[in-house]
Amino acid sequence: MHKRTFLKISALAAATMLSMPLMAYAQNATLKVGFVGVTSGPAASWGVSNQRSMETRAAWLNELGGVKIGDKTYNIEIVPFDDQKDPKRAIAGMEKMAQDGVHYVVGPNVDDGAAAVRPVAEQNGIMYFPYAFPKELFTAPASNAILGMVANYQSGPAIYKFLKENKGVKKVAFVAANESDPLSQRESGIAAAQALELEVVSGNVTYQVDTTDFTPVLLPVIQASPDLLVLSGVSPANAPQLIRSARELGYTGLISTETGQDASVLLEGAGELADGFISVGGASTPELASDTMTEFVDRYTKMFGEYNDESNTKVYALEYILETLKANPAAIDNVDEFKKTMDTFEAANPFMKGDAKLKYVGMTSFGQKRQVSVPLVVNEYKGGKFETLFVGTVD
Amino acid sequence: MEQIIANGLYLGAQYALIALGLTLIFSLMNVLNFAHGQMYVFGGFVTYTVVVQLGLPFIVGLFASAVVLAIMGAAIEKFLFAPVVRRSKRDESTMLLAAGVAFFLDAVILLFFGEKQRGVPKIVNGVLNLDMRIIMPYDRILIGVLAILLIVAFIAFMNYSRTGRAMRALAQDKMAAQLMGVNVSRYSMIGFALGAMLAGLVGGLLVTITGVNLGMGGPTSVKAFLMIMIGGAGVISGAIAGGFILGMMESVGLTVLSAYGDITYLVIFASLMVFLAVRPQGLMGKPWG
């Protein structure tokens, strides 16, 4: 063989070998999963943690060679849309998903957005996973929405009952932002407290989300001397300031919320004044987190520079979509098949230690399985991190 | 009652400082800077980065905010507003540019500082408690005093420095100032830099108390516009008056009207509509501009 021919063949072989992994990667089909939620403005933290959780998990699965659904292997592509917490934009986002042929969407993050996209989702065969609590989205005849977290009307009663029995709470006060989500959460919180025969000493004080000084807001609430101050639907941006103002006004009772919070934000915004603050968390406490969860946190941190504790819950939606599709590959472009599978679906929960399962729940609250099963972890903030107060389940 | 007044004075001092920068830019260039709130947020994030991420003293963070925002303001004026003002006679051109700058800064903030709420730990611990009649944390008192000192320093600068007098002349009559030898483009740039610097300083001061997040820019701009509409657009004393009036109205409203729900700003906006119908130029503004 001539030297020149040998070199040509060697170069061709080397190029072929080098391109093989790329070809295998490219051979996979693409499964688009959408995200329609808020990634800008004061509530950006909610949606950004959603989107980044999905992108982290998708990149990880793609790196492992993709996801095998039926006899095909798919690379996961996340299609994000920032609805700016505006229902009109949320509708536009869901319409974009329909145009792109997306059948599974995570989001929206708030009540009005989730309610607004319902007709678009139902008309275009889209299953969506809102982080919003209106019951009519999850009860029949609605069937395309799946609640992506534990609702406040599920966590609230559990928290109040625990605090009544263990901390002697008798009088409760509620304060909420003047927006649909916090206000509806306040109403259901008041109902839950009254059902437990707790005295509601203040239940009508509200604040603007852009408030920069909460002292005047909280003054009348603190004067009512509650044992427990509930920050209904409080955003991670407002929580530290409310806690700080309450403590600076001399309030020594308990403070709680039913929304997810971020430990580093509390540390920076309220410091030791936030010690004892009770909130709902996810599955990454040391007692619960599996090795997969730990690796997810590491990968997220590497990709985006900093982890967001809200992702402890937000990590689940994509996993539920993919595992359900694995259980019934016909659902890949047919949400009716997806719905059929939901009733009996069960898979191993990769993010929790032990034999925890991924399964759909919600029979008690909605009369049908339209909620992902994530652990109801109630945390207490102490010294810059969350400690698990108790763990419950939703059926 | 004492508590309401104390809250109102504290809020008023910070609001006045926010409004000063906005009104300065408006008076010099006739530009409604919709990005003023974003500049405030940027200043807060710079202080946060210097103090929390780099571990340097708070005063260094505050200084860094002032310098970064002054440079940013000068650059925005020189490369964006000045050419547009030169080429376009229509006011909406600069308004659209300002809105564009606001969106751009929002994106930059998200890119560099992330989506989370950020805060600098308290710079002074402890709470002043006068028999439960007035409760005020020491850090708020300190920030309130610093804000008032900055306002006084700003007024002194505008009244007694050569640069300040040149800017005042420019604000009163651009043509006359130009004929008297004032370099319009130079002092417009300095004025914009000074306005942006004030926004950055307030952001740096308040990040220790309220924290800062990506979404605070828009609402801050709205409040700043509210203040200068009350006091009179382009009038320094009007901005200060507007800030204190808004702070006091907010404090009174949140206490007195709390039993009726969150109607404080509804009442404030309704009052402002009536007020502007009667006196469209604001408290201290002139009807002719």
Automatic annotation (TrEMBL), chain A:
Pfam family, one: Peripla_BP_6
UniProt xrefs under CDD domains: PBP1_ABC_ligand_binding-like (cd06336)
UniProt-recorded name of the protein: ABC transporter substrate-binding protein
Keyword match Methyltransferase: no
Keyword field: Amino-acid transport, Signal, Transport
GO BP annotations, alphabetical order: amino acid transport
Superkingdom, natural source: Bacteria
UniProt similarity note: Belongs to the leucine-binding protein family.
Start and end residues of each Leucine-binding protein domain: 30-353
Keyword Magnesium: no
Signal peptide: 1-26
From TrEMBL, chain B:
Ranges in coiled-coil conformation: none
GO BP: amino acid transport
GO molecular function: transmembrane transporter activity
Membrane topology note: Multi-pass membrane protein
GO CC annotations on file: plasma membrane
Keywords on record: Amino-acid transport, Cell membrane, Membrane, Transmembrane, Transmembrane helix, Transport
Pfam family, one: BPD_transp_2
Transmembrane segments: 12-33, 45-75, 95-113, 141-160, 189-212, 224-247, 259-278
Subcellular location as annotated: Cell membrane
UniProt similarity note: Belongs to the binding-protein-dependent transport system permease family. LivHM subfamily.
This protein's name: Branched-chain amino acid ABC transporter permease
Organism: Shinella kummerowiae
